[in-house]
């Protein structure tokens, strides 16, 4: 059995999904994972948490399809879809292969917070069994972008 390491897409403080102000994430409806409350900096890159092919791609979220059939979702802020892409810059196209640490998009957590929206960034192992995930960082710890967050046991 191989263990996939998922890294933090942004620098910030690790939070449990239960703290995310959206029931889809807090109740793990799309899968288990962890969230990162990003540092409040002006412009910030959001990095791929693992190697994969960009499947779904929106200004505020992306999903990576892994070679073994698994998928990972990174959602940048909560309800940020309401911004209609304003303040988000995409750096990849759908269908592109990326490696862990590649820049996928840029945004401003400061601007998102100023719009009255949560800046927390869930990292979700889509349709995974929570028992297959291992937290590699304690909740409340600060991580740099690219730092290990989760281990995901798989096929």
UniProtKB/TrEMBL annotation:
The keyword Protein transport does not apply. InterPro entries: Dup_hybrid_motif, PTS_EIIA_1_perm, PTS_EIIA_component. Its main location: cytoplasm. SUPFAM superfamilies: Duplicated hybrid motif. The keyword Ion transport does not apply. Pfam families: PTS_EIIA_1. Keywords: Kinase, Phosphotransferase system, Sugar transport, Transferase, Transport. Residues 22-127 form the PTS EIIA type-1 domain. It is found in: Cytoplasm. PANTHER family: PTS SYSTEM GLUCOSE-SPECIFIC EIIA COMPONENT. This is PTS glucose transporter subunit IIA.
């Amino acid at each position: 059995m191989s263990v996939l390491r998922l890294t933090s897409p942004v620098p910030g403080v690790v939070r449990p999904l239960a703290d995310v102000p959206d029931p889809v994430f807090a109740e793990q409806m799309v899968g288990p994972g962890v969230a990162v409350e990003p540092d409040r900096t002006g412009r910030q890159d959001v990095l791929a948490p693992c190697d994969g092919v960009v499947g779904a791609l929106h200004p505020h979220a992306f999903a990576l399809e892994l070679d073994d059939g698994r998928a990972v979702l990174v959602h940048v802020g909560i309800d940020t879809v309401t911004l209609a892409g304003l303040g988000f810059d995409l750096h990849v196209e759908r269908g592109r292969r990326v490696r862990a640490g590649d820049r996928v998009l840029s945004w401003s957590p400061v601007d998102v917070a100023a719009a009255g929206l949560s800046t927390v960034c869930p990292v979700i192992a889509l349709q995974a069994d929570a028992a297959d995930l291992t937290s590699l960082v304690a909740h409340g710890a600060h991580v740099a972008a690219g730092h290990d967050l989760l281990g995901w046991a798989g096929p």
